[in-house]
Write a structure and sequence with these properties.
This protein is an alpha/beta fold. Helices cover about 40% and strands about 20% of the residues. It is built from 15 helices and 13 strands.
């Protein structure tokens, strides 16, 4: 789950998930061609499009352990070590160069880029209703004025809250926002805790609260700020410059889209959603169908590249995100942000998606 800001972070369709835990994995011994492959690490935390990497491990696409290879690692000639941890720990891993890559949001990528230049290689999803302001006894946003809303300060929750107020033409100062852990805020509303009339949370807390608290309703959510909250994979520029760095980036992207092809295949969709749900808050199939609607995946290279090439994302959305982080002192200074700019501290680069796609198309044409 996305808990705090940093400063406090095969090309072919594979078979069914069931019974595939150890299929087609290699366990190279010293002296074998695989034993000397460059090794890279990716930290991921519990969130729908990041849990894809846990499913990739279970399905033999990646083997999370060092020295063992899944299909995509064999294909690209790299050893990928997956490190699952809570969101804060993942950000710390990246900031201290403990890992080569990490799953985090566009907003939370700003602060670490000031100390370790990073490259966003892949957008994995965008919040499309997964982040919401939920209230009881409130019919519209005007009735929310003067009431305290509880959520995680200096996070995507507060960003979504203030951006919606801005869009609605409201004065943010009329709508108090107080820090509270999202799980605690959701539980307080669900149990009818006194004075908790408005919370700002994300899934699964949104789904749980609307289901468990009579009279609760969504006042507004992230559907009104399309593609402003982006979940991504970022890699340290230093790691990309290592031997095998480019192949590592391509392999991570390849694995992500392989699982997305399973989601797109009706023969495998349910099993894949169940597997994702097991990684994400143990949600059942029905809930996961809702989750992936509200956390919209960039399920194809075309979709992912379209975001990175979007003028509005580069020239309108990211400046808004940066302004929010500067105004709220989430970053000490504004990092340089680029799109295909290798000199930028925070660079969005679709090159690796294109290289992965070119390799896949070549393999398909060659029957590989």
């Amino acid at each position: 789950m996305r808990f705090t800001s940093y400063f406090l972070l095969l090309g072919l369709l594979v078979g069914p998930l069931v019974g595939c835990n150890n299929t087609n994995r290699s366990n190279p011994q010293d002296g074998s061609p695989s034993a000397d492959l460059p090794s890279f690490s990716l930290a991921w935390s519990e969130y729908p499009s990041w849990s894809v990497f846990g499913v990739a491990d279970e399905n033999g696409i990646i083997d999370k352990d060092e020295g063992k290879l899944g299909r995509v690692e064999e294909k690209w000639g790299v050893d990928i070590v997956l490190k699952e941890a809570d969101y804060d720990t993942c950000l710390t891993f990246f900031g201290t160069s403990t890992v080569d890559a990490v799953c985090m949001t566009n907003m939370d990528s700003l602060a670490p880029s000031l100390g370790r230049n990073l490259v966003a290689i892949l957008p994995t999803s965008t919040s499309d209703g997964a982040d919401a302001c939920i209230a009881v006894g409130v019919e519209d946003v005007d009735q929310l004025a003067g009431k305290t809303s509880y959520g995680l300060e200096l996070s995507v929750s507060q960003y979504m809250f203030e951006r919606n107020l801005e869009i609605l033409g409201k004065d943010v100062s009329d709508f108090p926002f107080k820090n509270m852990d999202p799980g605690a805020a959701a539980n307080a509303m669900q149990t009818g805790q006194e004075k908790i009339e408005s919370i700002v949370v994300w899934n699964p807390f949104v789904l749980d609260t609307l289901r468990k608290r009579d009279g609760s309703k969504v006042v507004f959510d992230s559907t009104s700020i399309p593609e402003e909250i982006i979940d991504m994979v970022v890699v340290g520029k230093d790691s990309l410059n290592k031997e095998g760095g480019e192949s590592f980036a391509c392999a991570v992207i390849d694995a992500f889209f392989q699982v997305n092809r399973l989601l797109a295949d009706q023969d495998h969709r349910d099993d894949t959603l169940v597997a994702l749900g097991a990684k994400f808050s143990n949600l059942p199939l029905e809930d996961m169908e809702t989750v992936v609607q509200q956390t919209r995946f960039y399920s194809s290279p075309k979709d992912a590249l379209a975001l990175f090439a979007s003028d509005s994302f580069a020239n309108e959305i990211m400046p808004k995100v940066v302004d929010f982080c500067v105004e709220h002192a989430i970053v000490e200074s504004e990092p340089s942000i680029g799109f295909g700019d290798a000199e930028a501290q925070f660079n969005f680069d679709g090159t690796y998606i294109i290289k992965m796609q070119d390799r896949r198309e070549a393999d398909l044409k060659g029957g590989g």
